[in-house]
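Entry 14. Structure prediction run on the chain below.
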Amino acid sequence: MHANPEPTVWVLTDGKAGDELQCLGVAERLAASPVIRRVAPRKPFAWLMPRGPIDPREAPDRPGSPLSRPFPDIAIASGRRAVAYLRALKKASNGATFTAFLKDPRTGPSAADLIWVAEHDRLRGDNVLVTPTAPHRLTQEKLAAARAAPPPFIAALPRPRVAVLVGGDSRHHRFTAPDIARLSGGLDALAASGANLMGSPSRRTQAPLAEAVAAVFARHGGWWWDGKGENPFLALLANADAILVTADSTNMLGEATATGKPVLVFEPSGGHPKITALIANLIRAGAAHPFRGQFDGSPYAPMDSTPVIADAIRRGWLRHRSELGLAGS
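Output returned:
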């Protein structure tokens, strides 16, 4: 008898970093060792997603299929190309696998047993869970450990410390020359007010943007990651008194609010109504503030949707086990 069984869990995506990160964040709250499965439909099947069908080469009975047996207790999927595969997995397992999908699948609530969306998405339904922020892999335990043992480059910076997390051009945003000048000027003003800067670029940060921000840090004695060695992302978040995030990354916004520290949002050119709505929700909650070249805001209760989503999936799976006659086994 197992009163609190640990499920086997798959993470099912096409390998896109943002989608896989969110799925792993939830999966790691459910199982010690989630299994990563990546789909790679060929054309024209990729063009038919999310409705499908899946690429026959990746059918469950084909060698090397991302849907090969043994099937999991729970499958957590995300991304347009994964929708049809999650449906195929449900059918191949004769309904035994409990399916969860993160973000709007664009095929309605029937795409999975449970669907998670953020507040700024429109999808609603009896099986749709809505939270303010997206899931991620941060935990309060990881943040506490990083806070207790800061690396030397952070320990050397006096407080208040501001972590600067810079993204880059995306599908909806562009960092124009005026945007770069505006961000640099705001950082100059922030540092001149007494804040100590520490930060890092992302994989999307283009050279002119990274160079301009690095120059500000150099002028004010801040610490800017040069891309060598271990990524300092966790250490930066854990040891900051405020966090500046560029609005091109909703994942970084969610991760920043999990710290409970004020989030300063810099918006480059472009945008999207959903991102605008997310930022507005965070501002109303008192977690985020438009970046004006100054330290704004105060600490608040950390906003972490990941355990909420994981708990909803676990409860749904346990109900599903009971319906299949597996409760207590």
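The radius of gyration is 21 Å.
Filed with the rest of this week's runs.
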